[in-house]
Structures are given as C-alpha cells and as structure tokens.
# Entry
Amino acid sequence: MSSEPECHELEKVTIKFAGDSGDGMQLTGSMFSDESAVFGNDLATFPDYPAEIRAPAGTVAGVSGFQVQIGSVDVHTPGDTADALVAMNPAAFKANIRHIRKGATIVIDMDAWTEDELQKAEMEEDPLKTDLVSSYRIIQAPISAMTRETLKETTLDLKGKDRCKNMFALGIMFWLFNRPLQNTEKYLKKKFEKKPDIIDANVKVLRAGYTYAQTIELFSVNYKIRPAKIKKGVYRQISGNQAVALGIVAASQKADRDAFLGSYPITPASDILHELAKYKEFGVKVIQAEDEIGGICMAIGAAYAGDLAFTTTSGPGLSLKAEAIGLAVIAELPLVIVNVQRGGPSTGLPTKTEQSDLLQAMYGRHGECPLPVIAASTPGNCFEYTLKAAKIAVEYMTPVILLTDGYLGNGSEPWLIPDMDKYPPIESRVPKINKKPYMPYKRDQQTLAREWCVPGMPDLAHRIGGLEKDDRSGHVSYVPQNHEFMVRIRAEKVERVVELVPDQKLIGNKTGDLLVISWGGTFGSLLTAVTEMQAEGNKVSLAHINYLNPFPENLKKIINNFKQVVVCELNLGQLHCILQSQFHNTNFLKYNKIQGQPFMIGELKWHFASLLAGDDL
Amino acid sequence: MSSEPECHELEKVTIKFAGDSGDGMQLTGSMFSDESAVFGNDLATFPDYPAEIRAPAGTVAGVSGFQVQIGSVDVHTPGDTADALVAMNPAAFKANIRHIRKGATIVIDMDAWTEDELQKAEMEEDPLKTDLVSSYRIIQAPISAMTRETLKETTLDLKGKDRCKNMFALGIMFWLFNRPLQNTEKYLKKKFEKKPDIIDANVKVLRAGYTYAQTIELFSVNYKIRPAKIKKGVYRQISGNQAVALGIVAASQKADRDAFLGSYPITPASDILHELAKYKEFGVKVIQAEDEIGGICMAIGAAYAGDLAFTTTSGPGLSLKAEAIGLAVIAELPLVIVNVQRGGPSTGLPTKTEQSDLLQAMYGRHGECPLPVIAASTPGNCFEYTLKAAKIAVEYMTPVILLTDGYLGNGSEPWLIPDMDKYPPIESRVPKINKKPYMPYKRDQQTLAREWCVPGMPDLAHRIGGLEKDDRSGHVSYVPQNHEFMVRIRAEKVERVVELVPDQKLIGNKTGDLLVISWGGTFGSLLTAVTEMQAEGNKVSLAHINYLNPFPENLKKIINNFKQVVVCELNLGQLHCILQSQFHNTNFLKYNKIQGQPFMIGELKWHFASLLAGDDL
Amino acid sequence: MSTAEKITEEKKITRKDFMTDQAVRWCPGCGDYAVLVSVQNALAQLEKNKDDVVFVSGIGCSSRFPYYVDTYGFHTIHGRAVAVATGVKTANPKLDVWVISGDGDSLSIGGNHFIHAIRRNIGLKYLVFNNEIYGLTKGQYSPTTKQGAVTKSSPFGSLEQPFNPASLCIGAESSFYARVTDTNPKMMTEIFVAAAKHKGTAFIEILQNCVIFNNKTHEQITGKEFRDDNQLVLKHGEPMIFGQNKDKGIVLDKTELKVVRIGENGITEADVLKHDAHAESPNLAFMLSRFTLPQYPVPIGIIRQVDRPAYEEQLHAQIKHAKEKKKAVDLNQLLNSGDTWEVD
Amino acid sequence: MSTAEKITEEKKITRKDFMTDQAVRWCPGCGDYAVLVSVQNALAQLEKNKDDVVFVSGIGCSSRFPYYVDTYGFHTIHGRAVAVATGVKTANPKLDVWVISGDGDSLSIGGNHFIHAIRRNIGLKYLVFNNEIYGLTKGQYSPTTKQGAVTKSSPFGSLEQPFNPASLCIGAESSFYARVTDTNPKMMTEIFVAAAKHKGTAFIEILQNCVIFNNKTHEQITGKEFRDDNQLVLKHGEPMIFGQNKDKGIVLDKTELKVVRIGENGITEADVLKHDAHAESPNLAFMLSRFTLPQYPVPIGIIRQVDRPAYEEQLHAQIKHAKEKKKAVDLNQLLNSGDTWEVD
Ligand SMILES: Cc1ncc(C[n+]2csc(CCOP(=O)(O)OP(=O)(O)O)c2C)c(N)n1
Ligand SMILES: Cc1ncc(C[n+]2csc(CCOP(=O)(O)OP(=O)(O)O)c2C)c(N)n1
Ligand code: SF4
Ligand code: SF4
Ligand SMILES: [Mg+2]
Ligand SMILES: [Mg+2]
# Structure
C-alpha cells in the first residue's frame, strides 16, 4: 500500500459524472449524492439528459450527465463549473470540458479513448495530445479493463460486466472525496434484491474502484467535506416533479377531497403524471387524456363534480389549455394548472429550462380572464406551493397557475420531510340546505368566492356555463351593467387572494444600492450570488418572488428603498414587463439569459458588480 | 292633402329601426342607409342582432335592431341615442327605450300593440298608459292594417302581405327625413328580380307609408339633412368583415400569390369566411377546417407551400390557435391571423363587442414568441389594415395578428372605393438559384427576414420545424448561445417592422392638457368626443393607435407633451398595461367600459371634462 | 294502508319535475323541442332523482339544452362537452351524466374527444343532435352535411364527403349506438331509457330538423309519406322487415346486405335477417351503418348494444384494490417512504 | 446515340439521392430505420424529383423522419402534421406530400385531424408508425397500447380499450388503408409505391418496434417463428390463404369471417374467400380490420383501395370553373361590385 495522500478540507465541491446514455450516469450521480446526503452534506443536483431521442452511442448528442455540488455550508445550486469530472468516453469529455474549472480533476476511461470513439465524438484532434492537458489534472484510468478484470470469475456475460463500469468510476470518486460506501452498498442490495449476482458484481467493482484510487498513486491529495449544519429532521432526496405529485396527494388530504389529475404526457412534466399514477391507494384518480385540451376539460368536470382537480403540462400544453382555462375562470371552479416550463417558443428546446411562460400565464387567454399565478423556487418547495395553489383554488373558487420549470422539475435536493399535521386544512365553502331558488353565484363577503355546490347535493340543482352570467342566480345574462360588474368582481377576487400571500421576504438589508428581483427556479443561483456579494461587503439585497399575481402587499415598499433595481430572469424580461407596468415610478433594470441553462453564479456577480460600479452596460 | 308641414334642417340625426327578428329590420335599416348614402350624407350604422339563438317571436330576447346616424357633417359613430325610433312591437319598444333621446319621435305599429304582445314582452304596464308618453312624440300608426289594406288586391297570402310591413315603416321614415325613394325602388327591383309580384307589393307599401306620413297630420315637422361635403369618388357600403375579405383578395393580387384561408366558423368572424368563399374566381382557396387548430395549421401549411395565408377567428378561436402561432413564429412563415374580438372571457357575450384580446394577442403563447399586432379602426379601413398585415407578414416573414371587433365587423359605413393600382406591391424575397448548401435562415440585413423558399423550387430542398434551429442552416440546434441569438433576433425582427409603421397621427394640437389614447374599433366615438371638446375650447388631443406592436416611433414624443394622458378602452386596461410598461415615465390614466357596448360620446366627454377640471375620479 | 292508498301517497315523478323556469329559446318548429320533451319523459319514467342527474353540453343550438332541464347542468365550451363529462363521471360514478351535443360540436371540433370517449366506454348517455348544419352560427356546413349542399360557407356546394356517424362510432369501438328521429317522441323516450340503463358510452344520433338553416334535410326519412319505406326500424331479435306493406326485408348476400321483396322470387319471411344488436362482433352493425338512401332504408333504433366494462368502473376498481392492499398508509408515511436519512 | 448510351447517360435515381447529411438519431435497433430505408427506396423507384416532395411530420421519435430525407421537410407540432399537410397539398397539388406520424401523434392528440383528413380524402401519403407506445416522451401508453399493459403512466396496467386503427380508418370513410411491418422492407417499399400512386389519402399503419419502451410488442406478428401463421398477407384478387404450409384460409360464415383448414372437412382452396381491396362497399375491409390474434391472423398488405375524388382536386376544379365563368373580373371590378354610388 502506498503512502497516505494529503487530505484537504473543502467547503464546497462540484462533481460532474458524464458518459454515454447507456453508461448509467444518472444512477451513478444519484448514488454519489445520496451517500453525501446521508453523510450530512448539503447538496444540489442537476441531471442533464441528452435531447429527447437516443443518439447513437459515442456521439456528443448521446452524452448524459449528472452534476452535484456538495458542501459543509449551505448549497443552493449544483455549481457553475465542476471541480471534478468523470468522462466515460471522449464525447462526454468534449461535451463537458467547457464547464469544467481550470485546474480541475478529470477522470477518463482510458479504454474508451480509441480512434473510433474520438471519431464518433467528431473530435479532430485527440485533446490528450494538445495543450489542454496542462490546464487540468487528467487521470487516465483503465476503467473498462479493470472492471472486466474484477469480474472475470463471475458468471456475467461481457455486456453485463461492462454495465458495472460506472461503479468503478464511482469508487474512484468516493475515495477522492472521502465518502463512506455503506449506504451505496445497502442501496445496491435493495435495488437488485432478486439478483444477488448483480449485487455482488456491483459491490465488487465499486470497491475495486475505491481501492484502485487508494492504491495507485495518481492522486496526491484527496478531499474531505464535513457535514453541513443543517436543520434536524428526517430527510429524503426529492425532485420538483415528485414534490408536486406528493403535494397533490397532500392537498387532497388537507381538503378532504379525492385528487383528480387530467393530463397528457409532455417533457419535462410527465414525471408528475407517472408519480401520481402510483398513488392509487390514496384514491387519486389519474386520467391520461387524449390531448391537453381533454386533460384540462376532464379536470374541470372533476372539479365541478367535487374533486380536487389538477392538470399538469409544459409550454405547448399550456397554450392548448388557454380556452378551457377561460371556462374555469368564468365558471369559478377550483383547479390547479401546473406548468413545468421549458425552452420555447414552439417545440423550442424541450429538454432545457426557461422562464418564458410567465406572460402567458398572466395574459394568455381571450377576454378579461385573470387568475392567481404562483411559482415554486426549489425542488423541495414545489410541495408547499402545490398545497398553496390548491388552497387558493378552493378557498377562492378559481383556477390557479403554478409555474415550475425543467430545472426544478428534474433537479433534486435533500428535503426535510414536513409534518403534515402542522399544515392548515384547505376549507371549501359548501352550501347549506337552502331556501329555493339556489343562488350559485352568491359570494362570500371577504373572499368573493362562490360556494362549491356539486351535483348530487340535494335540492340545489342549478345550471352554469361559459356565457356571462347573472351576478347571483348564474343564469345567462346579456345585461351590459351585469357584465361589467362580473368582469370587475372576478378581477377583484383575484386581487383579494393577497390575503393568503405572505409578505415578501428580503434577503439582506432593507435599504441599499441594489435590489435584485427574481422569481421561480433561479432562486438557488440568485441566493448564492447575492449572499456572496453581501459577504464581500456590497449593499445588495434579494427579493425572490413566489407570488406573481397578486404580488405580496409589501413589495412596493421594498422596491422603493433601493437605488437600483434589477430583475433577473431566464427570458427576455417578462416579470420586468409586469413590474414596470405596475410600479411605474421605478425604473427597473433587467438582466436576462435565454440559453436553456440556469444562471451561473459568476455571471450574476459580475453583472451586479458592474451595476454597483455604475458601469454603462 | 294636408298643409305642408314645417321642414327643419338638421346636421345629424340618429334613427333606430327595431322589431322582431322576423320583421326584416336589418334590411329596412340598410335601405334607409343606402338611400341616405346615395343622397350624399355621411353616415355610420350598427346592427344589433339578438343573442345567438332565435328567441320566440314577440319577446325582448328576439328583438333585432339597426341604428344609423346620418349627417351633413362628418359622422363617425351610429350615434349614442336615437332621435327617432321605429318599434314594430312592444318588445322592440321595451328593448330600446333606454337608448332613445328624450323628446324623440317614436313610431309604433298600433296593430301589434295588443295585450298578448305586451305579455310576450313581459311588460306589466302598457307604457302608452304611463307618464312615459309625455317625454316622447309617439306616433301610433296602424302599420299592419294599412299594409294589408294596401295589398288587398294582390295575390300574396296573408303571411306574404305581412312581410311587407317593414316597407310601410320605411316609407314613413323616408317622408319624415325627406329622403327620395328612387334608389330603394331600384334596389327592390334588383333584389326580387324574379318575383315581380313581390317587387310590386313592396313598392306599393313603401309608397303607401310615405303617403300616409305625408297625408295624415301626425307630424307637424319633417327634417332635411343636406348632403355632406365628402370626398369625391365612387362609394359603397362596407362592413368590417366584408372589408377584411376584400382585403384578402387585394393582398393576394398585390403579392401575386393565391390567397388561402383556413378557418372555422365563429361569431362574429364567420362572415369573412362566407364572403371569401364566394371569390373562387380570384383563385382564393378556402377550407372550413374541423376546428380552429386545423384552420391555422392548414394556413401554416399553405404559407409554407407559398400561398398568402390567412386564418380568421374570434377570442375562443384565438386561444385555441396559440400553440400553432408559436410554430409560425419559430418557422418564420408569413401568416395573417384576423381576430374579430367579442365579449369574453370564455363564451362570454358572443354577439357583443369588446377589446379584451389585446394582451393575448401580444403575449398569449408559451416561450418568447413575439409578433406584430395591428388593429383596424373603422369598418372601411379593415381593408387597408388587412393589406398592411399581409405586407408585414410577407416582407418580414412573420405571423401578424390583425385585431378588429364585433362593432367593426358587423358595422358598416360608406366606403370610398380605392384605386388598387395606387397600392404598393407586396414583395416576397424568393431565393435565387443557389450554391449548395442552401441556408434557409439567412436573413436580409435590413428587415432580418429570411427568404420565402417553398417546396417545388429546384435544388433548395431543406428541412424546418418547431425545434430551435441554427442561425443560418435551420438545422436543429441545442447550442445555448444559438438559442439566445435566435430568441433575440426574432424579437428584433418584430421591432424592425417599425419601418413599415407610419408616424402616429395626432388629432389636435401637439401640446395640451389632455392626451386621449385609444385603439381599434372605438375610433369613431373617440374622434367625435374629442373633436367636440376641441370645438368647445378644450386643449384635448387624440392619438388613436393602429399599430400596437411595434408602436409608431414618434409615439413617445407625443405622449411627453401633455399634462395628462388617458387611455380609453373597452376592457379593463390592456393597452394601458402595455403603455405603462413601455413608457414608464408617464403616469397613464385609464377609462374603461366593459359592457359589450361601444363608448357613448356623452360619457366620454363627461369623463374628459372631469379630468380637465382636475376632479378626483 | 291499502296498496291503492300507498300508490296515491307515493309522489309520482312526472315530466314537470324536470322542467325549469327558463324560457326555451329555439326557433319555433325546431326539432330540439321534441327531444327535450322526450328526455324529460325518459327521466320521469326512470324515476330519476334530479339531484343525481347532470347534463353537460358544448356550444350550439342544441347545447342550450341543460338550461331547460331541472337537474344539475353545465354548458361548457365548443366541442369539449364529452371531455368535461368524462371528468364528472370519473369523479363521481354515482351521477347520471348526459352529454348534449351537435353534429358540429361532436363531429367537427369535438371529434377527438368523441372517438376517445367511445373507445374508453366511459359511462355517459351521449346525445348528438344531427341537423347536418351549424345552427347557432347561422348555417355553415358541418361534417355531416351532404356533399354538394349550398350553405353559407359553401356557396358553390360543399366538396366534403360527410362522416357517417354510425360507421365512425362503430369504428371507434362503440358499445352502444342508436339512431332516432326527432319526429318520433315515443321511440326517443324508449331509447333514452335503454341508453340510461346501458353501462358505458351510449351514443344516440338524433336526426333533427333545423327549420331555419337546413329545413327538411331528413324529410326523406321522417316525412309521413316516406317513413315506412325509408326507415328500417330495428329491434333486437326481430326480422329486418320494413315498407308500407311490411313486404320488404333485408337478406345477406356474401359480404353485403340486400333489400328484397318478401313474396317475390320465392323469398319468405324466414329468409330475412334477424337483427342482432348484442352480437359481440360489430360486423353486422357496421353493415347496417352503411345503409343510406336511396339504395337502402335508414336503420332506426338500437343498432348495437354490447356489454363491455365502463372506464370509470375499472378505474374505481383499481383504486379500491390498491386501497385494500395498502390499508394503513397515511400521508406522513407516504412522505417518509423511499430512502430517507436523519440529521440530528 | 445508341439506346445503351442513352441509358447510361440518364441519371439513375437511387436511394442515396434521398439521404441527408444529418446523423440519424433513433435508438440502435429501432424499427424506424427500416421504414426510412423503404421510403427512400420507394422514392427512388418512383423516380421522384426531390424538389417536388415534401415530408410533413408531427412530434415523436418517428416524426424526426423529415430530417433524414433529402426533400423538402417540415417537422411541425404534436398532432397537427396532417392539418399542416392538408394546407400544403391544397396550396400546391403538384407536390407529393407525405405525412409521418406516430400512434400518439395521430391517434391521440391528432385524432381529429386524422379522421377529417381521411374523410376529406385529401391527397396525402399518410404513414403512422404504430409502436403502441409514446417513444419520445419515454414510455407512456398510447391509444393503441394493449389493455393491461404496464407503462410509465399505467403502473397498475392500462384500463383503456385501444383503437383498432384499421377499423377507425374505415369507419372514417377511408379510400386507402394498408398495414405493413417494419420487418418487411420489401413489402413496405411496394406498398409505399402503391400509396404514392393513390389519389386521396393513402393511410398506412406500420407495425413498428420500439426496442426501448415496448420491445417485441408486435413479436407475435413479425417474429420469424410466428409470422407465417399469424400474418394474413392480402393481395387483391387472390385467395386469403396463410400458414406455414399455406393450408389455412378464410371463409365467410354469415356475417363473420372464419379461419378454416384447407383439406379438412372437405374444404378446398376454391371455398376460400378472395381478397377484394377495390370493393366499393367497405364491409369486407371492416371485417378484416377486426382480425386480431390469437383468434385470427393479422391482415398485412393493402386492405382497402378505392377510387374517390381527392379533396384538392375538387377544390381546384371549382376554382377553375369559377375562373372560366367569370373571366374578365379584376380587383378594381370586384371592389366596385354591388351597390355603389358616386359623389362629385
Ligand atoms: C372554440 C369555438 N369555436 C367556434 C365557436 C362557434 N360555434 C358555436 S356553435 C358552433 C357550431 C354549432 O353547430 P352544431 O354543433 O351542429 O350545433 P347546432 O347549433 O346545429 O345545434 C360553432 C362553430 C365557438 N363558440 N367556440
Ligand atoms: C402539445 C404537445 N403535447 C405533448 C407533447 C409531448 N410529446 C411529444 S411526442 C409525444 C408522443 C409520441 O408518441 P408517438 O406519436 O407514438 O411517437 P413515437 O415517439 O412513439 O414515434 C408526446 C406526448 C408535445 N411535444 N406537444
Ligand atoms: S337555428 Fe335551427 S337548430 Fe337552431 S334553434 Fe333554430 S331551428 Fe333549431
Ligand atoms: S424510443 Fe423507441 S421508437 Fe423512439 S427511437 Fe428509441 S426505439 Fe425507436
Ligand atoms: Mg348542427
Ligand atoms: Mg408511438
């Protein structure tokens, strides 16, 4: 055995696993993350799938990646650039090298570094033979060969053996970052419960990788990342899409109504449908409709019949649902529309993240057709905002749009499992037995919500529909003044939702040189960038908005206390447009990126610094 | 024969014809208008159909009306309140009395004034027996009886005879307003060419009505409205929907392309489809699609194949087309979407007018999906703006939304027939025979438009689609920077359309106390209200906007020169929202009405006066 | 208490119980009136509790129907009634859910939901008022308008081959298809009652007259002077005989059906095909669906009615099963499932 | 110049002429590859000028097809390919317009455009890749997925009765329906060639294998060991005989078709039904559409092909006629038509 290497302690480290779609990189990344989570690190992950269709093996289009940042301090993003990369083939190297920090450690599978593979990756030159090498610490490990060697005595066929090579790479990384192996071994045992030879092979290769790294003196240092000080409690990994699905079940229980989902598959929202289809034991009714219009219309029918109804989709689906959303608005039925945003317009960049459906969520329907819009900001809080959306929908009898995005939906983080008993109930106003005639559009004085009167209730039969209706009876009404009244009262009802909207939180001081405003899935990046700048002595604060319509009541006051206000979004300035229209005394600046990628901490900080310095941008 | 009555001269007069749906009031109103137009008056008309379903005869829901304002001066609206009403039954009286000026002349058919009819109209009291009578000059004419009497020698059956009674009423009005009869008689002869007995009967009854009014001393005065000083030329009556249809034919000729319409019927846009379906001799291809999505997709296909393509609809249809519009945006294909706005949300008030689809036209699609939006402002200029929309679409290779509304679409006005030879051509950029490979997304330096390369062109075969595409080749591209570039260039292309946008016209002085901003179908009301106030000495000007995206370049300058700016719209403030966001240094006021009805001149003036007086509104 | 007394005491449900106070707004003479009455009669006959009945409609003249029936009602948007109704029925299978729609509403814009509902066999009574025209929007051709018809949107004659709703329905795996005419209220009521008892999607095509925009389009079928010769009234198990003198019948000739005259060429009643609405194979129903004038009489009545599990039944069975299998699960348990770890 | 010389001079069109430089991005082993090759071969065989050919697709794995054919191509949005293609063909009937779509794209979200295109008989070659799954979105059930199938969106088994695309198509008035398997490139090419020559909508269902999410779903039909017994290869005018030993046949039994063994119970080849793809009546085609395993072999080949005017033909004829009737009309004349008056 070799001499002990140095062990450096790090606060944070970002690791990227990359390989061909068939190389199991998502699993490898998740296992690394899970092990780190159990160890007590804070972390954030981001899977980076190839574009939808399986590309030929070995091509850049076929590269699948998984990035994770772990830390002994709070971690809010998967990291701008990686400190370590595992590249299972040249294509993985090529696809990722731009996002690797200079000086980083790169582990490659030497055995995959062939002429043939270089060609598939369309690399004209072998990068190992260029200057590039000098900028990184490149570890050429014979991963494939060692894996086969390790398994030569097993009964697995060659393909089966090769399938274990990701474990070898994982073993190397475990050693490099000083992780324990127990959890992973336990996980493997559970996953392949019925295939002991597979468990055996994977564990063997994992340990072999670990030992290889320990033995061979390729690494002069390894790293230690202490557990983070995180809140006590029971945790699990959760993705935004899973969190929405669990939120739906939770909301149904809190409202004491069956949950209903009418949906049509679409990337990146489909996982909510998949997840929810599993929870039949909670009485969840899931219909995969023939299309998005069918999906929302079924949900509207279910809401009308008394279920807690949802429809989930992404951009193109939201466009298709526009007309039916209008029906829910005028019928005043509770309904939650979850839109997991992706790159647009049209089919756009379907596997990439973006925040470009906000204006559509606000205005994308004919007629005066207002509804509450809220947005989640971390994978975990997709759960809470789903519950909140349902609460607003039921208590105000209105459709609500909940915006998440591909980054939140697919990304995951450790989630402190909440105690459901501490959540408030969702209360529906159900009509009492009534003197005739029943007035279905009579409103609650405070919320302006009508009652939720559903078929089957005795002696309350009535008719509703998409034509303008009389103020109280709900009968069709062409009376001009009634129309104006109804249009205004529907708008006011949405404004009154503000009573369920908590005050806007401000991260930083109440006054200062620069207020950064952001919303939705960019929270982690903005939080990191702003807190780092605060630590560096800048008078910067962050208001990250979750309630987009109506805005929190104190927002205006916050805005007025800063010299400059900049709105940062992954679009061309949609929240900017709304804010500028509503708070027109302020001159809002904007910072936008529209590349299907999250913000980098670095670019944000650079931009904020320029603003603070008064640079002419 | 009686003594000659006094003849008063009037500048303007508003007349309303109202009766049961079966009474032929639309025809009667049109004939009165036509006769006045030929006589040389300026005029504006507005038909007021009952809600879509035929209601039982005699009920208020079944009342059909036609209002026309004629004048010896410029006339821009059909008038706030009528100076004369023809009410063929009690229901027509009941439905209209609120909109009749006190002191006006009301002609009723005495014979229809029965207990039975009063009951059908749900009138508890006979208004003729109330105080009401004293506020009007009510002429009780035995219209039905006199009609039958006039026709007693003809071969028509009773039903046929009764069908002529509208001519009796028309005759009365012709005498009252001193109109000639020739044109109407000519018209009847043409209309019933093949039925001489019908011509005969109608002409007889028309004359009988005229003579009746002349003979019986019911009217102590009649009125004269001199011809207006209007531009020389050949005129015809035109409705907004007809004008769009003719505009489509004209655009197709100017572009030297076949016109294509993919549409699905919907009130109040269907007439464009009906009208256009007649013009087969101009090579117009019209498909009534299975739904609105099919309609726009067919149009997109036709545009791709080189036709000048259109799709026409109203609110609910625009909602359904959202996704496909996105495809046209990213594919950069020329397409005109005509949206004839109606009362929303949802089915709303389908037969009433409104301006509440503006924000949807601007933002109602997922992703960053900008396109030019323009709006017509008179029935007649629907023609020009259709041509303009097509010109923008083709010359900038983009879908364009043209907004009209129910008021414009159904309303009509005398239209000075333009000389088509004086219109500029619509020029498409067609690729020249090319060195390979063809670059379908190469752009014109000035307009940023790509070429219109259509299947069938030799040696230019290429593939396009809804995924983000490479800057020049059009190949699918997931490159982050390319996406940002493409999103921004599509936005910039729309901004550059400003080169086709004429300067904003200002009616009134360049500076002043109040600038009124309006758009679309409210032009007539705003123009009338503002010019009247100017004549009364107020420093008010009007900027009525037709180009909504992009705005005319000089708009900002105009706005800055007024103490107050108020935006008047038939919605809750949609243009207001856009202006406030784009020109945030100005505090825009707003004045809104959302009753399915046009603005009244009176209410506008009252509001402007309050603003000028600094009243706290 | 005697039986007689009991009967007088029991509140008898009549058509009146299903009438609302809203003025019915169809044109005088519109076929929709007769359908309304027949539906109300069927509900009375079925002794339905009005609280448990829901009418869901799209947009069109016919779709105003829910306003006139004193039950729960939802007048939705164009083409989507059956999708909304699917949600209603799935949410609460105890409700009687009736869909009211037109040829435009269901066969044009709503075509997709229509074929999918039928395939899924969701428990709906689905009435399509086929007047072969768009009534509400004032007279454009619809997907069932006859080829060549001059309408507002086809001034030179419609070019389109119409759908045969029966064939389309059967092609979409229908478990119940019936056709009735608005001129025969008795049969309508009968068939609505049968539909109400059917499990799954009971689709009924109503040949309805639009006096205003397409008057007499079904005259050759419904007219007094034509109906006996031009209608083939089908009853399960009975021979397919028709004609004023009951002397015409249907026989099978290879893969085709043929009209024959009983008594001619040695053909007797025994040769005539018997109607089999319950046949598992849809072949006969499909053949009958092809019958159009003038070559064939038009089949009226229940053409197909077979047993097939309804969608909502199966879904609720799956849920029940899942609940039984995992009884103890509560929300906190669900959240805590999967890989968890504790930080302390 | 001799004939031989001429021939060498003429540029022979081959598959290569229809290949693009784009890397084909389907999973290794995906059935889509074979279809691509067969289509390219058909185009070559038809000696198509690539400038006049357009491929229009929706969204799905299969819908990436246009990128791989060197003709004009338009990759549109989910479910709408056939509507876009309708526009293309109507605008320019001279183009050869091919629609590429999947079972989700055409039978789920695109169902309405699908049935209407078929009814209209618009001149499209319409290929649906039926892998009985949503491939691109990673494995949800589709409207053709077998009942009970466990997929991503049906963890407890799908409850839905699938569509039978053949029955639906025929129910929607199809003039051309064929079924092929991705395992038989020769037949695919043959049938694509026949489709290309058909006037109106030529619909082809391709039984395609998705190796990743629904591997071997058609195995019972396409597998080497099954195909002879489980495929009924249909040719117009030829007897319906199948089986490894060509000893099974189809006979008519009242309104049903039956599988019999030739040589048993006195049955000879002469008793076996002959395929009639050109029959005006769709009855036989419908009966064949109902054939599913295990009771019946699965019909492969052209099941129906009849003459019916294509939509775009009729429309252009109407336009031509109108132009001939009103020759002199120009734009200024149009604007000046109707009632006009002069102000001077
Ligand atoms: C999305 C949308 N598109 C179009 C319309 C206009 N529209 C209302 S009803 C109708 C068709 C009515 O025909 P049908 O369904 O046959 O019913 P009928 O009036 O004949 O009973 C149309 C096109 C609409 N209301 N909404
Ligand atoms: C409007 C819209 N809804 C949903 C999607 C997501 N989506 C893309 S392809 C697809 C289904 C693909 O299945 P299929 O048509 O059978 O094609 P395959 O991938 O199996 O070839 C879905 C649901 C989308 N792109 N757009
Ligand atoms: S338009 Fe036709 S369908 Fe509509 S109510 Fe009148 S008669 Fe009936
Ligand atoms: S997912 Fe299935 S259908 Fe799609 S490319 Fe892969 S094998 Fe083919
Ligand atoms: Mg109809
Ligand atoms: Mg598929």
Notes: Residues 177 and 300 of chain D are 10 Å apart (CA to CA).
